[in-house]
Amino acid sequence: MPLTEASALAERMSWVKESPSSRVADRVRAFQAAGRTVLPLTIGEPDFDTPDHVKDAAIAAIRAGETKYTSANGTPALRRAIVSRLLRKTGQSYADGEICLGGGAKQLIFLAFLATLDEGDEVVVPAPYWVSYPDMVALNGGRPVVVEAGAAEGYKITPDRLRRAIGPRTKWLVLNSPNNPTGAVYSAEELAALADVLRAHPHVSVLCDEIYDEINYGAHAVPSMVTVAPDLREQVFLVNGVSKAYAMTGWRIGYAAGSARLCSALGTLQSQSSSCPSSVSQAAAVAALDGGRDFIDRTVGIYRKRRDLLVSGLAAVEGLRPAVPEGGIYVWTDTSALMGATTPSGAVLASDTDLAEHLLDTSGVVVITGDSYGCPGHFRASFALSEDVIREAVAGIAHSISLLRR
């Protein structure tokens, strides 16, 4: 039935796009429902189960009747756990009023843009970027200013490019470290150089998306902007959550730290939208944040082996150039050398989408294309999968590419 005039959708719905990750996941499910074997290297969440002590805390909360509304900004117990975690990680002591809670880090990013962007305000977004940043900016009236951060720069924005991108309407710089999709991590020195630029532009805030900071393969902890440049603390909004580090994607708890004024605004917005985060999930998140590092250390060790397996396998395929991720659960691979190749059916690969279709049709392997991340000529492959599945997928990719004529 066509929409009546009274129920017509808002104009913004004519240009906002569904998340590419969600779209690909739906396609995988459709192929599986049709009986086709697929090897989805698209998984955007840990394949481990939530730790038992976290689940036990949730069950205890349910039995204790902790199933009612909480404050829009969550429980004092969870805010205390977040303050303690941030002190350990950043060396910065945050007050209770400088902590925000939400239904996942994604919601907090959206609310931060909603609270701060007026029509035409600009947000600097380095590409490759997480798929939702530009649409979140645009949905809230802003204009994403996409700045290329290519392989030559280690897929990280440089101070010079940041300086050129900032204008009088710039409200935010988005920094995602470790980065999704590339796995790139900004060093303390690189953050310090960006901080030097930001000091000259006090009207620009920095949204630091650190959701993958515990999945880190370096010798040192992932540095944070507030540690490197504590004088910019009022300009920095740290966003994190329990989804990736503790395999709690479905529990939907995110947290953030920033100025008391911004956190108060986000609490107001949440009170008018989702009311509050889940009370039971909050109890589980307290157990996760206060429960030590055993689970993180064990799973990161497993991820490291999977990462090395996938990187070495892709690097052995002619025409693919994978980057070694320093953090996160994805391998970012340059496929530009394969553009112009011809499939057995005579089709010419003119884009990374064509290559992804060829992989799916000939080997059942599913990847997410680089254009989804603002960087065509690449694909993202997840290693949040068993080693056997990774080996099978790499063999499938190698077979598919061997069929091409170049």
Helix and strand topology:
Elements: H1 20-33, E1 39-40, H2 52-63, H3 76-90, E2 99-102, H4 105-116, E3 122-127, H5 133-139, E4 143-148, H6 159-165, E5 170-176, H7 188-199, E6 205-209, H8 225-228, E7 236-241, E8 254-257, H9 260-271, H10 279-290, H11 294-315, E9 321-322, E10 330-334, H12 352-363, E11 365-366, E12 368-369, E13 378-382, H13 387-402
Parallel strand pairs: 1-11, 3-4, 3-5, 5-6, 6-7
Antiparallel strand pairs: 2-8, 7-8, 9-10, 10-13, 12-13
Helix pairs in contact: 2-10, 3-10, 4-5, 4-9, 6-7, 11-13, 12-13
Cofactor: pyridoxal 5'-phosphate
Pfam families: Aminotran_1_2
EC number: 2.6.1.-
Please provide a written account of the structure.
This protein is an alpha/beta fold. It is built from 13 helices and 13 strands. It has helices spanning 20-33, 52-63, 76-90, 105-116, 133-139, 159-165, 188-199, 225-228, 260-271, 279-290, 294-315, 352-363, 387-402, and strands at residues 39-40, 99-102, 122-127, 143-148, 170-176, 205-209, 236-241, 254-257, 321-322, 330-334, 365-366, 368-369, 378-382. The chain is globular, with a radius of gyration of 22 Å.
Short account of what is shown:
This protein is α/β, with parallel strands linked by helices.
Strand order of the largest sheet: 2-8-7-6-5-3-4
Q: What share of residues is helical?
A: 25-40%
Could you give the order of the helices and strands? HEHHEHEHEHEHEHEEHHHEEHEEEH
Distance between the termini: 49 Å
Number of DSSP helical runs: 13
Gyration radius from CA atoms, angstroms? 22 Å
Q: How many β-strand runs?
A: 13
The best one-word shape is globular
Structural classification: alpha/beta
Mean pLDDT: 95
Give a short account of the largest sheet.
7 strands, mixed
State which percent range the strand residues make up: 5-15%
Low-pLDDT segments: none
EC number: 2.6.1.-
Keywords: Aminotransferase, Pyridoxal phosphate, Transferase
Family: Belongs to the class-I pyridoxal-phosphate-dependent aminotransferase family.
InterPro entries: Aminotransferase_I/II_large, AspAT/PAT-like, NHTrfase_class1_PyrdxlP-BS, PyrdxlP-dep_Trfase, PyrdxlP-dep_Trfase_major, PyrdxlP-dep_Trfase_small
